[in-house]
């Protein structure tokens, strides 16, 4: 095996697709039972609801080109109507707020439609899910990857297409330099400490009432809310980012109760009784978050590939993933940017 790609999120999938098109030898392994990484779309009836990232924007050329090439349809985030604001005492005001995501772009079928197409197009022999790499050992003949099920994979080089903090859990032999490990630990995993709630309804009653579905709250538990409905038809949905820290949201039943109560305050009694409420806590996902990711991020980090994470193992150990993309780090576009960057330095064999 020439190249082992560890991590089947968007970056790993994009790299695998490019290597497949170039006729290069590779194997893509993913620890989860599914491909897609932090891109996860729930299907409910005819509706699709992103539990991870949902948007991309104009000026992000790689994802725009990929979406067009895959024949996926794009539509704008719904933002027609009044914004809603809730103060710390739970008092609600219409026409006030700053959370509109007007201009953001979504994919018909969710972002999961993109990663699903990429994964399905790869030959079965070139991909393996449910395969967590626990150790990488470099020897005279190449690199041996040891998996959680006890199996091994031999490769000439390895690309770590996953968050650097998650990569620190792998046992490296010989050990990586201390400066490299410290740099990996210092790279925040974007949105890893976040939880996202999606409330699904048969009617978009907030639209009928002249509301956009955009809301901000200083009471919570959700701090920012948006319309998450499909482009056309139902079911419809509102989604929100949970502002309660991970340690304060461990009781899911209590959290769900508070979410429903808040939706009722913001959008009326119908909102307090969703047909289905999905809560995805990424901080509880062992393949997304480490203990270092539980502290909240108050601004978008400045991402890049640190010098101490380059040229490892004589150029045979590489990092990809959105957190090492210097221009669009943290976004889906950054995942593609990172895959493009590592592809440019890999041997064409």
TrEMBL record:
Source taxon at top rank: Bacteria
GO molecular function, one term: oxidoreductase activity
Organism field: Sulfitobacter guttiformis
UniProt protein name: Monoamine oxidase
SUPFAM superfamilies in alphabetical order: FAD-linked reductases, C-terminal domain, FAD/NAD(P)-binding domain
Family note: Belongs to the flavin monoamine oxidase family.
Gene3D superfamilies according to UniProt: 3.90.660.10, FAD/NAD(P)-binding domain
Pfam families: Amino_oxidase, NAD_binding_8
Amine oxidase domain boundaries: 98-340
